[in-house]
Design goal:
The complex is a heterodimer of chains A (250) and B (482). Chain A is α/β, with parallel strands linked by helices and 250 residues long. Chain A contains ten helices and twelve strands. Chain B has 13 helices and 23 strands. The chains are: A alpha/beta (250), B alpha/beta (482).
Amino acid sequence: MLSIKNLHASIDGKEILRGINLEIKTGEVHAIMGPNGSGKSTLAAVLAGRSEYEVTQGEVLYNGINLLELEAEDRAREGIFLAFQYPIEIPGVSNINFLKTAISEIRAYKGLEPMAAKDFLTLLKEKQELVEIDRALISRSINEGFSGGEKKRNEIFQMAMLEPKLSILDETDSGLDIDALRIVANGVNKLKSEENATVIITHYQRLLDYIVPDFVHVLYNGQIVKSGSKDLALELEENGYDYIKAEVEA
Amino acid sequence: MNEVLEQKINTDYKYGFVTDIDADSAPKGLNEDIIRFISAKKNEPEWMLTYRLKAFRHWLTMEEPNWAHVSYPKPDFQDIIYYSAPKPKKVLNSLDEVDPELLKTFQKLGISILEQERLSGVESRIALDVIVDSVSVKTTFKATLAEKGIIFCSFGEAIQEHPELVKKYMSTVVPYTDNFYAALNSAVFTDGSFCYIPKGVRCPMELSTYFRIEAAGTGQFERTLIIADEDSYVSYLEGCTAPMRDENQLHAAVVELVAHKNAQIKYSTVQNWYPGDKQGKGGVFNFVTKRGICLEENAKISWTQVETGSAITWKYPSVILKGDNSIGEFYSVALTNNYQQADTGTKMIHIGRNTKSTIISKGISAGFSNNSYRGLVRIAKGAENARNFSQCDSLLMSDQCGAHTFPYIEIKNNTAIVEHEATTSKIGEDQLFYCKQRGIDNEKAIGLIVNGYCKDVLSQLPMEFAVEAQKLLEVSLEGSVG
């Protein structure tokens, strides 16, 4: 589904991604781990289409399409979803209205009829129960006054509503207490299927106890320096990132 | 004179188109002769002419004010035509009999209100008074309203048919001495709407006036007077458009509202006068005096405005809270783009006891525009237990525009509680990207965010207007990302 070849990207003239290579197939869960500053969030931002980053080399194919040529909103409409590390607040715009507009835009892009109000409400109720999010929360303005945990759960709720093909979760576990972590993980697991793929960006093994990855990659200095199965994550937990750095420098 | 006008009228247009109707107009300039001409044209009684002349003579002694945070070339008052009337073909009884040219004009304007009008049998109908170039062209539903004793007609007609009401109330809220433009209006006003709701009557439909400036070089000086007698209720909508022109057009209106005991007046405006082009050339000067008085106890007056047009918007819809327990409200969205300027706000004057006022002002600046909120909350010595809540928010859309707030608070009674909040914000890149990452493009995202920002004000508008207003905000902000 996603094929990244030799991707280089910079911001303000500073190169962050120095040749990323990654293949993701439908039905797979990939975890990307690495120390601070290794380029994890940058990778997410570049895939989502943030214009602040300049791609200097390489290609990204998404279902055969050259992803780098698409505008951010079109990438979203093609089924790419980014669960933000720091979800922003938009006062005055209700979650419901926001999702209605998003779904409407995505359907228009695909040449579909707009969703009937009745169907939208049914979908809302279904997904709200699926990810165990409070009805009161969704009626409010986007993330306004939400706690850190509530914001992250709202991201997963939106993911449930938009049914993306490729979900990128950027440090979704940061700032979550044990219970919130469990609920978020549950939600992600329920949304996983053979038709979609998930990329989990995280520092810690913890989340991966709940969302079991098929592949684990370690990002260091803008490159994927090691890949393995879920056991790699356990190794990292044991030994920290220093031993990876040692391996690389050797 | 008519040939000259005809030529001018055949200029090209886009949204601001020009209607080809025969106009019957005064020569340019302002002097006592012109005033007599106007009064004669309208067949006015002696007392009205006397009033006009008094106002004119007073105006001559006044100086144009320049304390507002706007700058503009002073209008040349001798270079304006003060009367221009489209000649109606015959007496109008139904919309079908309206001059077809005019009807085409309305269709082009795409006024949803008129669409509703034509779909007879629909529950919420709106009585419509159409004013083109200072003359009321059509007032619908007069008969239906008359059954309830409601008078809704043009101001000119009211002078003829209901002189006692006009004499009793006109100028009591905005005397001609009030300010420079009120004096000018009092001298040369040509038409507007008049409305009287009798005791105990709840007006069954929205009353609406649609203003349009057509002929070139004319000023629009309309006068509106709305009286709600004891225990009555009326909701009134005002919509405004004008065609594109290179020169500035002056719109100096006066609106007076009077609410008696337990009465309520809701006055909503969606203003989209031509704002000038992208370089700031042309556009309407909207210098308006609007004021309501809660004359007796438990009266309530609400002003709701969405101002997106005009090169310059200069107005302070105000409420004098004379009656005990009376309530005044002001909800405003003022949007300026390109080189527009706005200095707008309200005055809430608390005089009676236990009075309350609410002010919610949302300013949006984009392009190179300048947007100022100016508000006064005055609590008089005898105004026991007065309450005010004010919220003035500014949203900056570009890095070249300006947003300013000039709140004035004068309190002479120490039982008053006055709250004031103000915020200044901009639409963040992060917010826009968040929307984009959910499949919503820039234009739509801005529309969403701006409408969310204006929610508290838009929710005050009658439903018909709320939808128009939302679309208008989006259209006015097209291309303003930055």
